[in-house]
């Protein structure tokens, strides 16, 4: 049976779930809680859950960024689903995926911790998974399934042997979705506009050719700092399967004649050579201010060079430029003409529902005290009292609450020895930790 891929709800992220409607479940002969096989460019398995009432009859399947990565598809693609043949896992070998330059070592009993986190989860060789409660550098730490015994789709049981490979898989060796659409909260409408402007040209340039128009070359995102402009650019590039190149505005500027323009040209050339690409220019106002208001010759030359480079992009839509600024009124008006930055999208401060979504994202792997309903109530209360907080402020709030919890447990931990898995497992972040953190984090 063929279904269209749609975005997963926040509550499903990282849990290996798939949501389909009643008609699909009946046609497949499977019930809620059973396992289905999902086939795209690759194959994986997921546990079946119900869709919301409004999704009935739409012929969609809701899966998160990790499942999409494991199947090799993105939003809007078509995939085949069927009832899975699942065997109990006897042995599973996994390895952490970390970027170059990072090291990681696990304490004793980590295998049991992983087993409890992945119990009853269907897995296939090559899948990337995250284990609740294991994080690195503030984000969930992904693991790759290196091998399974028996082969095929297996389900982790109480007696499954988990082997942790000491040698990590390097991030460059495996395409992991570092930022997916589920990592962006409270910006549904803005995200839809950006996707329309960027995904369509990158994936289906023929639509624009048929209509006899050039696809857009640039999108300008503007709004207060910390609202998620960079995150949106990364997520869209990642989900569209494009290479991502970033330019920090101030880094381009140089006191030597011609060097600023040369750096800019090099970035554009690199993006074009490795198309399809998204070229992200952060703090655009610092390299493209209004020419009549600047006294330096360097800024004027850089603006002129940027205009030339944007005009020189081919009309095939294989390189899209995203500019981000919190001072849109300071940007040279020539850049805001059609054919350069075609569309301007405001990324504003999230409302109450948006704040709750962002908090759900930043507390996703956090062991919060109490049942699921209590967790939801806590996040609703925090969303109510955090007026004016943007995404970055809410991330800082979650981080500060976790640090408050950590300070409580530190006296019982011997920092010179590996920390036992039992100690890690009993760690919890409480509502009091969040209340204390609120006193210290300001918007």
Helix and strand layout, with pairings?
Elements: E1 2-6, E2 17-20, H1 22-28, E3 35-39, E4 43-50, E5 60-62, H2 65-71, E6 78-83, E7 87-88, E8 91-98, H3 110-118, E9 122-123, E10 128-136, E11 139-149, E12 154-155, E13 161-164, E14 169-170, H4 188-203, H5 205-211, E15 218-222, H6 229-239, E16 243-248, H7 249-252, H8 259-273, E17 277-282, H9 284-287, H10 297-312, E18 319-325, E19 341-346, H11 352-362, H12 372-385, H13 391-409, H14 421-426, H15 431-440
Parallel strand pairs: 1-5, 2-4, 7-12, 8-13, 8-14, 15-18, 15-19, 16-17, 17-18
Antiparallel strand pairs: 1-6, 3-4, 3-6, 8-11, 9-12, 10-11
Quick synopsis:
By secondary structure, the protein is α/β, with parallel strands linked by helices. Helices cover 35% and strands 23% of the residues. Mean pLDDT is 88; it is low at 173-177.
* Mean pLDDT metric: 88
Poorly predicted runs of 5 or more residues: 173-177
- Please state the CA-atom Rg, rounded to the nearest Å: 24 Å
Query: What proportion of the residues form beta strands (DSSP E)?
Result: 15-25%
Protein structure class: alpha/beta
Corresponding CATH superfamily of the largest domain: P-loop containing nucleotide triphosphate hydrolases
Instruction: Count the domains.
Output: 4
What composes the largest sheet? Answer: 6 strands, mixed
By CATH, the topology of the largest domain is Rossmann fold
Helix content: 25-40%
Task: Tell me the strand order in the biggest sheet.
Answer: 2-4-3-6-1-5
Distance between the termini: 48 Å
Task: Find the count of extended strands (DSSP E, 2+ residues).
Answer: 19
Give the overall shape, derived from the CA principal axes.
Answer: globular
Q: What oligomeric assembly is this protein in?
A: single chain
């Amino acid at each position: 049976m063929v279904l269209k891929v749609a975005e997963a709800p926040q509550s499903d992220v990282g849990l290996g779930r798939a949501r389909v409607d009643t008609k699909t479940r009946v046609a497949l002969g499977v019930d809620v809680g059973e396992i289905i096989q999902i086939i795209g460019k690759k194959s994986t398995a997921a546990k079946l859950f119900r869709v919301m009432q409004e999704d009935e009859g739409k012929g969609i399947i809701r899966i998160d960024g990790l499942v999409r990565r494991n199947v090799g598809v993105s939003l809007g693609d078509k995939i085949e689903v069927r009832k899975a043949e699942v065997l109990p896992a006897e042995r599973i070998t996994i390895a952490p995926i970390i970027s170059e330059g990072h090291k990681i070592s696990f304490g004793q009993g980590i295998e049991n911790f992983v087993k409890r986190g992945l119990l009853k989860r269907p897995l296939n060789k090559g899948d990337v998974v995250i284990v609740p409660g294991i994080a690195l550098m503030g984000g969930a730490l992904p693991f790759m399934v290196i091998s399974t015994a028996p082969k095929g789709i297996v389900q982790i049981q109480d007696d499954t042997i988990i082997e942790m490979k000491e040698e990590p898989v390097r991030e460059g060796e495996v395409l992991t979705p570092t930022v997916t659409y589920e990592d962006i909260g409270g910006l549904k409408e803005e995200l839809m506009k950006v996707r329309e402007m960027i995904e369509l040209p990158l994936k289906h340039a023929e639509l624009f050719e048929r209509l006899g128009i050039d696809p857009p070359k640039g999108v300008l995102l503007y709004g207060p700092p910390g609202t998620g402009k960079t995150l949106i650019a990364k997520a869209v590039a990642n989900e569209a399967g494009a290479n991502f190149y970033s330019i920090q505005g101030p880094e381009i500027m140089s006191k030597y004649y011609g060097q600023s323009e040369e750096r800019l040209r090099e970035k554009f050339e690199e993006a074009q050579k490795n198309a399809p690409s998204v070229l992200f220019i952060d703090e655009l106002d610092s390299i493209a201010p209004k020419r009549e208001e600047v006294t330096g010759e360097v800024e004027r030359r850089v603006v002129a060079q940027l205009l030339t480079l944007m005009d020189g992009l081919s009309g095939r839509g294989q390189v899209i430029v995203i500019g981000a600024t919190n001072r849109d009124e300071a940007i040279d008006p020539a850049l805001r003409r059609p054919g350069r930055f075609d569309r301007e999208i405001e990324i504003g401060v999230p409302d109450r529902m948006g704040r709750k979504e962002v908090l759900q994202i930043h507390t996703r792997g956090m062991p919060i005290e109490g049942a699921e309903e209590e967790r939801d109530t806590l996040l609703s209360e925090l969303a109510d009292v955090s007026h004016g907080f943007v995404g970055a402020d809410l991330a800082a709030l979650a981080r500060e609450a976790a640090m408050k919890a950590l300070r409580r447990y530190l006296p019982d931990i011997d920092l010179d020895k590996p920390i036992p898995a039992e100690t890690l497992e009993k760690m919890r972040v409480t509502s009091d930790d969040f209340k204390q953190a609120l006193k210290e984090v300001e918007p």
